[in-house]
Amino acid sequence: MSSTTTKAINLDLLSVAERKVYDSLSPQGQAEFLGYGNMSTRNNFDTPTYIASPNEQVLSKGNAFVVMGLDRSGNTLTERLETHSAAIDLVAGRKGFRGKARTKTGDILNVDPDMILDAARVYISQKANPDRYFRLVPGTVGNTTEDALRSTVAMKADTIRIVGRENIKLVTRTDSYNSQGGKLSNMSTKGYGIDLIACNDDRDMQPMVKGDNLRECLTEIVSAINELRGLFNNYVDENRKVTIALMSHTHHSPFYGVLTSPDFSNLAPTACKALISNITDVTAQLPLHATKCAMIETTYLGAMEVVDPVDEEGKSSYILSKYNNTN
What we know:
Radius of gyration: 37 Å
Number of helices: 6
Structural class: alpha+beta
Mean pLDDT: 82
Strand order of the largest sheet: 2-3-4-6-7
Helix content: 25-40%
């Protein structure tokens, strides 16, 4: 987590007179000056002035706002004209760390919605272009555009926690039509997926794997390796027979076809060495190889319903999640 750079209590933009008043107060009085305590009547300490359009109804307390009106992501002069675009904007901390009641020159700071700098927001709109508002990359599901507006619920903050005491579902394509009356066809399902994009960087987006299918694939691969080990063992056995035959083989000499003696100076020692290496470096190692394959299956691919394989620290090594699923 990155550290904050803003002060817990920032009094930098108080006027000289206000700062003198604040410094003269007791700790309880200073708390009430900032808006805390049962006796405090102050609720707008260092809060920017929101520029409300005539069609908006604004409920505010300090720097917390609920704005009901039409969809807009900035000032009203730059917004498009749209009907059927009702919106509810819940904002805490307009302009974020730059949010002050006054500018450095002492002028009142008037602000519009700022989808980038506002500290925390839940934005609900009947018709919006949220990917432009929040500067989001397309990923694999694509972006909304000015020609493809959608009803939207968007959340933005430094951290977001969605907590389900039992479970959480992220579900797409539940209906046959979207909120604008567009038919949701099955001709292409690409735009109905779920993208998990870290750092707003979609340059290396890849599809998720299906765990059960991956497990079956890896099990088949391990099985094929086991079969290959058996075939290799058969080859080694047959090769050993040939080597033994070569060690003891003889030829018929030109002298009345008398058999010659084996080659004890070159072939026999070399073949004997090959046989020993065959046994120690190959045959004796095959059971170890079989054990390794079995450990891979048990540790990563074993059926978790029977036993949940764990490492020395008690962490599960099973490749399938006990909790999460995707299609």
